[in-house]
Amino acid sequence: MPRWDDEPEDDWDDEDEPVDDDGTAPCPYCGRDILEDSERCPECGSYISREDAPYQRKPWWIIIGVIAGLYAVYRWIF
């Protein structure tokens, strides 16, 4: 009489899930299928990762706030 733990462990394989072998993946922004190696989605124009996106300058009010904060600390110390 076989015990329940004598069954093969490969019963949990994901055989029911479809395998996507065509090299595409959904865009995280618009959901359309794009090539996995794409840096940018051709449909919506969004960059797939932050590393691929071009550098964007910080808003001016953040820079002014940091400078004002540093000046306040400078005046408080001296």
Tell me what you see in this structure.
This protein is of the alpha+beta class and 78 residues long. The protein has one helix and two strands, in the order ββα. The chain has a two-stranded antiparallel ribbon with strand order 1-2. A hairpin with a 6-residue loop joins β1 (24-26) and β2 (33-35). The chain is rod-shaped and about 65 Å long.
Brief overview, please?
The protein is α+β, with helices and mostly antiparallel strands and 78 residues long. The chain has one helix at 60-77; strands at 24-26, 33-35.
Strand order in the sheet with the most strands: 1-2
Class derived from helix and strand content: alpha+beta
Rg, Cα atoms, Å: 26 Å
Strand content: 5-15%
Q: Specify the overall morphology.
A: rod-shaped
Count helical runs. Answer: 1
- Percent range of helical residues: 10-25%
Q: N-to-C SSE series?
A: EEH
Strand count, sense and barrel status of the largest sheet are: 2 strands, antiparallel
The total strand number stands at 2
Arithmetic mean of pLDDT:
76
Ranges where pLDDT stays below 50 over 5 or more residues in a row are: none
Q: How far apart lie the N and C ends?
A: 86 Å
Which key phrases capture this entry?
78 residues; alpha+beta; two-stranded antiparallel ribbon
Write the layout of secondary structure elements.
Elements: E1 24-26, E2 33-35, H1 60-77
Antiparallel strand pairs: 1-2
